[in-house]
Amino acid sequence: MPSLTAAAMGSVPPDRGGIASGTVSTARQLGFAIGIAVLATAFNAGATASLASAGVPDPAAVADALSAGRAAPGPAAVPAALHDAALAGLDRVFLLSGALAAAGALAVIVLVRAVRDSATPPATESTTGMRKAHA
């Protein structure tokens, strides 16, 4: 996190440092809150689907208990079904996380390239002439 804040602070003029710091902090907090909600929903959906296919009665309630760490083997679910449900939930979480990371990496590549292209000054005749003279 310190390197992220340092990168944000170093990329803006000093008079905009407070804005950059606040933006980084806000994005971090929103990312935690939204990320946990989205990934918990993905885990619960995967676990529910696995428990339903295993024939566990009331799979949604058992998946809720599993995601909260309260699921215990009993008449509602056998240990193998709980284990498979946890793996199915984690599988969905990892797939979703990987897809989001790939989308983020692609966005960074596209946006950074666009910023670099727009920051490159166009060649003028005087610089072109100097390049030809030195070549």
Automatic annotation (TrEMBL):
It is found in: Membrane. It comes from the Bacteria. It is a multi-pass membrane protein. Signal peptide: none annotated. One of its GO terms (cellular component) is membrane. Keywords: Membrane, Transmembrane, Transmembrane helix, Transport. The chain crosses the membrane at residues 93-112. The keyword Isomerase does not apply. This is MFS transporter. It comes from Pseudosporangium ferrugineum.
